Amino acid sequence: MLHLTSRFVFCALLASVYASCPPRCECSEAAHTVKCVSKDLRSIPKIPGYTRNLFITGNQISRIGPESFRGLDNVTTLSLSNNRISEMEFHTFSGLFRLRSLDLSNNQLTVIHPEAFSNVSQSLRELNLSRALYNYSSVMDLAASLQRISMANLQVLDLSDNSLIYLPSPKFCRVSIKQFIFEMSNCAVI
């Protein structure tokens, strides 16, 4: 019985790594890439475990949470731009231990849970939030999220074109970023 259970678990793990390409998406196992571009998706589809580069852009996804990226521990590049995402839940990116580049530009973020970025803080190098922060509370949520975690390796934070009036300086000053982009935001640090 134990042998049969072991074989079942092994097959389940193998199936998750070699899952088929989601409907309406383009996949290249050789390039470790999945693209779901302008497919009118309402949620993140089941993505093959071999994926390193994931592009889900131009869709109708309103929220993302920890279940959105389960089993994708090889992903290094994640683009979620232009999806109308308004909510990032608790531990949204928790399984993405190798994530280096995250693009959330051109969304409508109104709620960013303070622990949305937990567990990616050591690997994340680039975070693009240009044209994504929808209101004052989303800026405060982002600041709280960045303050709670160590983003020692974050090199680029793009907050451009968010119509920011000010940044909550004590929170953003604790983040050591090599390139901090906020052009066209008319921003003042208070």
UniProtKB/TrEMBL annotation:
GO terms for biological process: monoatomic ion transmembrane transport. Keywords: Cell membrane, Disulfide bond, Ion channel, Ion transport, Leucine-rich repeat, Membrane, Repeat, Signal, Transmembrane, Transmembrane helix, Transport. Residues 20-53 form the LRRNT domain. InterPro entries: KCNMA1_auxiliary (IPR051432), Leu-rich_rpt (IPR001611), Leu-rich_rpt_typical-subtyp (IPR003591), LRR_dom_sf (IPR032675), LRRNT (IPR000372). It is found in: Cell membrane. The keyword Cytoplasm does not apply. It comes from the Eukaryota. Residues 1-19 form the signal peptide. It is a single-pass membrane protein. The keyword Ligase does not apply. This is LRRNT domain-containing protein.
